[in-house]
Every structure is written in structure tokens, then in C-alpha cells.
Write a structure and sequence with these properties.
The complex is a heterodimer of chains A (294) and B (283). Chain A is an alpha+beta fold and 294 residues long. Chain A has a 5-stranded mixed beta barrel. A 4-stranded mixed sheet of chain A has the order 2-7-8-4, with no helix packed on it. Chain B starts with a helix and ends in an 11-residue tail after the last helix. Chain B has a single domain, classed as Ribosomal Protein S5, domain 2. Chain B is built from 5 helices and 14 strands. In chain B, strands 1, 2, 3, 4, 5 and 6 form a 6-stranded mixed sheet that branches. Chain B has a 4-stranded antiparallel sheet with strand order 12-11-13-14, sandwiched between helices. In chain B, 27% of the residues lie in helices and 33% in strands. The chains are: A alpha+beta (294), B alpha+beta (283). β1 of chain A pairs parallel with β1 of chain B.
Chain lengths: 294, 283
């Protein structure tokens, strides 16, 4: 056992953009441009004839529309997003879910596949049984069904791939670091499944086999002991994701897999040390650049 | 923060396997970062970050009258402030119990004269003494609060400089202090015995140190051991659970061992710190 107490002067710079131009970051109140014919997008406001940034982030321009995308923010949901959330409250006919948004999201009893499979009317019996299905603290994967006018989300788990999550680890990162892609459920070749929630919640778990009779995922196997090798892979993936997130790198299956391969020279607990985290992020970025240049 | 049963099971099995969710073994500590002298108008200050736990400590010094029952001793007071930025639970009076808990445990741990000699803070017996006010601000809570706070307090006291007193004059009942005008003319405190606290968490059948917030949720019992130079100064129970006598003895032994190593690691780092460096915790 070696205890590390470091000084702030020895802090390592987590930035991986050395030879590459990093985009300018606007701070709140900073002038973006003179307001003449531009349109005011998210994260901006008008003052004294100027268009100014209201958040800290990078500028994005689509024709005449200028918006500033913040690096660090709460999750702004969009229809069809895959999210991972935690049940905070059980109410009549619905669950409240914490999805890292400004407001808690809603999961209606009518938008879940109940155990038993077949679609049927929800009766009073089901309302009484709600806590049996999902209780406070449970983690679920779900899809955004609708975005309300106040920004709150309503979710659904009307597919066999969504539902209650069993044993595994939750990692929280900024939502802006999750790369949008066709699928957010990945079975990595290292023998681990991963759910990259668009809301910045990442679920790492032993491989999910969909072949078994899945009943909308309301079963948790608490007896099962995860073997040591899988546990090590989960721990390594967790630390790799945190290393990439610290260096503000986009998270998707390829980047995570590269980071995993680059991290193999360290032991899992060594990946908590800032130097090795930056080293893993650097070599991952290098490999991604090589891939893009080919 | 709440956890579901499956997550708890995963953590529990990991502890049994001696492979925790971040890859540490049961007796492993996460790397931490310390900064001293970051508040220019305090007599001593430190900030310590242990994973997601962030603590800022400032030491202020006042001239005071000693307690009548301890005329030759100075005073040492702890005050803990739980910022609502740390967790929303601290809003309003939410963090008050935790704050008094931490400040009482610190006062208990520093009470022994072997841990911290208050006699050195006496200026004139029965008349004047220095009073150290240690202000602790919790900026972020990510588990293992007691350990982080005790280390930050020790670092801040190490950084503290007590003004040098040139002469003391007595004019009737009034005591006149003549404090040196030179800024560098001040005395560092002796913190070699300042206690280090270690939280030992019992998860399942095993004891772990440096629990993360999720692991704290899984623990059935927790024990905080304050250790000064290999001797236990205070022991307090961190949660409602009970401990078997043998487990208690084992955890005490583990706590003392880890605290000694923590102490060595912290003192080495503090001694290697350059006297003037400008980083500031907003870097």
C-alpha cells in the first residue's frame, strides 16, 4: 500500500490538444459578434447591439444561427435519446426519475412493459404493485418519449432492451461528452456491456444476453457473483472512461475501447493516478487521430 | 445519493473479492492533492482534495484570556461550515448535525497535550494567550469526510505562523503586547503530533479504508480512529451499526496502521512544498 499525497504545483495538465487548435471558449457575457443579421440561438443573448454568450462553451454556427454549446450543463433531452436514470419517487400511476436534467423526468405506468409480456390495460392492481416493479434508488435504462414545454422529459421502456438494470457500475460524466450515435448499447469485445446514456450516465455491466426469456427487465439477480476477470474489466473500463472524461474527450465505443487497450500497461488501481490517466487519454487521442488521417 | 440493491451487491462482492469498483484493494487509499497558503489574509490555510471530497481550511489567530482552570494554555476552536454547494442536503440547517459532529470530534482529537501542546500558545500565564480559530469549509462531499478534514486541518496548522511577541508589559491590570512588526518574524506551530483520522468502514465481513460515497452507503458500521504519533486519541462511531469486539480490535489496528502511513505521506509532501508558490485553487 502506497499513499499518494501530491502538491497542487505538481498537477498534470489533462489537456490532450497540444498540436491541434483547440476552439475558443466563450465565457458568460463575452461579445460573440456585432448583432446585425445573426439569429440568437441557445446560450446567447443580445445586449447593446452585441450578441453575447450566456454560458461558458464553444460557438456553433449554422448559416445565420449562432449558438454557444456549454461544456458543462444539465442534460437537455431530445426525443429518441437513450438515458440511464435513477428512480427518485413512486407516485400514483408514475415514477419520477433523476436523469441529470433540470427537472425530474416522468415514467408513466402506461409506458412500461409489465412483467408477463403481453400488452394489457393497466388496472388498479398494477398501481398497487408499482413499488414491486421499480422502487426508489433503482436504476433504469429508458428512451425519451416526449419533451414537455418546461423541459421535463417523459420516458418509456417499451422495448425489451430497456428496463431495470442489475449488477454493475454507474459512471457520471458531462452529457456533452457523449457522442450521439445510432446505438448507445454496446457489447464490447472485451466481454462487457456498456450503455452510454445521452444524459451523461454510463452503465457498465457484465454482458447482457437477450436470448433468454426477457420480460421487460424487471428481474435482478442478486445471488450471482460476478467473476473476478469480469470485475477487473469493469473496473478498468470505469477508470478509462473517467480518464477520457477528465481530458474532455468524446465518449463512444471506439474511444472507450482504444482507451481500454492503451490502459493495459497499467494495473486497474494505477489508473487512479493523474499521470497515468492523462497518458491513457493522450495515447487514445493519438490513435483516434491516426484513424481519422487514414 | 441512493443506491439500488444490485449496485450494493456488486460493491459487496467486490469487497469480498478484495477488488473494489475502482480497482483498489481494501486497504488502499485514493491519491489526494494538497495546497497550502492559498488564503493570503489568513494566518494559515490549506485545501485538500481527495477524489471528489474537497475541503478548505483557514486558521485565524486572536489574542484572548486563558480559561481560569487552564491559565497556562492557549485556545483552539474548530468551526465547520457545510456549504450547500457540496450537496443539496446541506441547504438551510441540513448540514448542522454533521458540522457539529466533525468539529466536536476534532476538539476531542486535539484535546490531549501530546497531540497538540496548547501551552506554547500562552503569552502570559493567566492573562493573555493566543486563540486559534480553525475554520473548515466543505466544498464538495465525495465520501471519507473525516479523513480529508483531519488532513486538511493538519496541513493548515502546519502552514500557520503565530506572530512573534517582542515584549509583554504590565501596567496595573492592563497587559500590553508588543508584537514584532517584521512580517517574517513569526513562529511556526509544532504539528508533528496533530492527529490524523481514519474512517474504517465495515462492508459485509470486511473492513475497508477510504470509502467512496457509494461504499459508505453499503457499510453496515463505520469507525473513525484519530491517531497521534501511533497513539489513539479518539474513537468515534460513524454510523448506527454495531461491531463485534474482535472486528473492533481489528479495525482499530488497521486504523492506526493506515493513519501512521497517511501521516508520513502528508508530512513528506508538506516538507517538500516550496516556501512560495502561486497556484491558487482556481487554477
Amino acid at each position: 500500500m502506497k499513499i499518494q499525497v501530491r502538491l497542487a504545483t505538481q498537477r498534470v495538465d489533462p489537456s490532450v490538444a497540444i498540436n491541434y487548435r483547440s476552439p475558443k471558449i466563450f465565457t458568460p457575457g463575452e461579445v460573440i459578434t456585432v448583432q446585425d443579421e445573426f439569429m440568437r440561438g441557445h446560450g446567447t443573448y443580445e445586449e447593446d447591439g452585441y450578441l453575447k454568450s450566456s454560458v461558458a462553451g464553444v460557438k456553433q454556427q449554422v448559416n445565420k444561427l449562432i449558438s454557444v454549446r456549454p461544456l458543462k450543463s444539465r442534460y437537455n433531452g431530445e426525443i429518441g435519446d437513450v438515458v440511464v436514470g435513477r428512480i427518485t419517487e413512486v407516485q400514483q400511476k408514475r415514477w419520477k426519475v433523476d436523469t441529470n436534467s433540470r427537472l425530474d423526468s416522468v415514467l408513466l405506468l402506461s409506458s412500461v412493459n409489465l412483467p408477463g409480456g403481453e400488452l394489457r390495460r393497466r388496472c388498479a392492481e398494477d398501481e398497487h404493485m408499482m413499488r414491486e416493479y421499480l422502487q426508489e434508488g433503482d436504476l433504469i435504462s429508458a428512451e425519451v418519449q416526449n419533451v414537455h414545454s418546461d423541459g421535463s422529459l417523459s420516458l418509456h421502456t417499451r422495448s425489451l432492451k430497456y428496463g431495470k438494470l442489475s449488477q454493475g457500475v454507474l459512471v457520471k460524466v458531462f452529457p456533452s461528452l457523449i457522442k450521439r450515435s445510432k446505438t448507445h448499447f454496446h457489447n464490447l469485445p472485451v466481454g462487457i456491456s456498456i450503455i452510454l446514456g445521452n444524459n451523461g450516465f454510463i452503465w457498465i455491466c457484465p454482458p447482457i444476453n437477450n436470448e433468454e426469456d426477457n420480460v421487460g427487465g424487471f428481474v435482478q439477480n442478486l445471488e450471482e457473483v460476478i467473476p473476478r476477470t469480469e470485475r477487473e474489466t469493469i473496473g478498468r473500463l470505469r477508470n478509462c472512461i473517467l480518464a477520457l472524461a477528465q481530458s474532455k474527450m468524446l465518449l463512444y465505443d471506439t474511444s472507450i475501447l482504444y482507451a481500454f487497450e492503451e490502459s493495459l500497461k497499467y494495473s486497474v488501481s494505477e489508473l487512479l493516478i493523474p499521470e497515468s490517466m492523462v497518458d491513457v487519454a493522450m495515447s487514445t487521442q493519438h490513435r483516434i487521430n491516426m484513424l481519422e488521417n487514414d | 445519493m441512493s443506491l439500488c440493491e444490485a449496485e450494493k451487491t456488486f460493491i459487496l462482492h467486490g469487497v469480498e473479492e478484495n477488488f473494489r469498483i475502482d480497482g483498489r484493494e481494501r486497504e488502499d487509499y485514493r491519491p489526494m492533492e494538497v495546497e497550502i497558503g492559498i488564503i493570503s489574509h489568513a494566518f494559515g490555510s490549506a485545501r485538500l482534495r481527495l477524489a471528489n471530497t474537497d475541503v478548505l481550511v483557514a486558521v485565524k489567530i486572536e489574542v484572548d484570556t486563558p480559561y481560569p482552570e487552564k491559565p497556562s494554555q492557549g485556545k483552539l476552536d474548530f468551526f465547520v461550515d457545510c456549504s450547500a454547494n457540496a450537496t443539496p442536503d446541506f441547504e438551510g440547517r441540513g448540514g448542522e448535525d454533521l458540522a457539529t459532529g466533525i468539529s466536536n470530534s476534532l476538539s476531542d482529537a486535539y484535546r490531549s497535550s501530546k497531540a497538540f501542546d496548547l501551552k506554547k500558545l500562552c503569552i502570559m500565564k493567566g492573562q493573555k494567550c493566543w486563540k486559534l480559530l480553525v475554520d473548515i469549509l466543505l466544498l464538495e462531499c465525495g465520501g471519507n469526510l473525516y479523513d480529508a478534514v483531519s488532513l486538511a486541518v493538519k496541513a493548515a496548522l502546519w502552514n500557520t505562523r503565530v506572530p512573534g511577541v517582542k515584549s509583554v508589559g504590565i501596567d496595573g491590570k492592563n497587559v500590553e503586547l508588543n508584537v514584532s512588526e517584521r512580517l517574517n518574524d513569526c513562529v511556526p506551530l509544532d504539528v508533528s503530533g496533530a492527529p490524523v483520522m481514519v474512517t474504517v468502514c465495515k462492508i459485509g465481513e470486511y473492513c475497508v479504508v477510504d470509502p467512496s460515497a457509494a461504499e459508505e452507503k453499503c457499510s453496515s458500521a463505520a469507525l473513525v480512529v484519530a491517531v497521534s504519533q501511533g497513539n489513539i486519541t479518539t474513537v468515534l462511531q460513524g454510523s448506527a451499526g454495531s461491531l463485534h469486539p474482535t472486528t473492533l480490535m481489528d479495525s482499530l489496528g488497521l486504523g492506526v496502521e493506515v493513519a501512521n502511513q497517511l501521516n508520513i505521506a502528508l508530512m513528506e509532501t508538506l516538507q517538500s512544498a516550496p516556501p512560495h508558490f502561486d497556484v491558487g485553487f482556481l487554477k
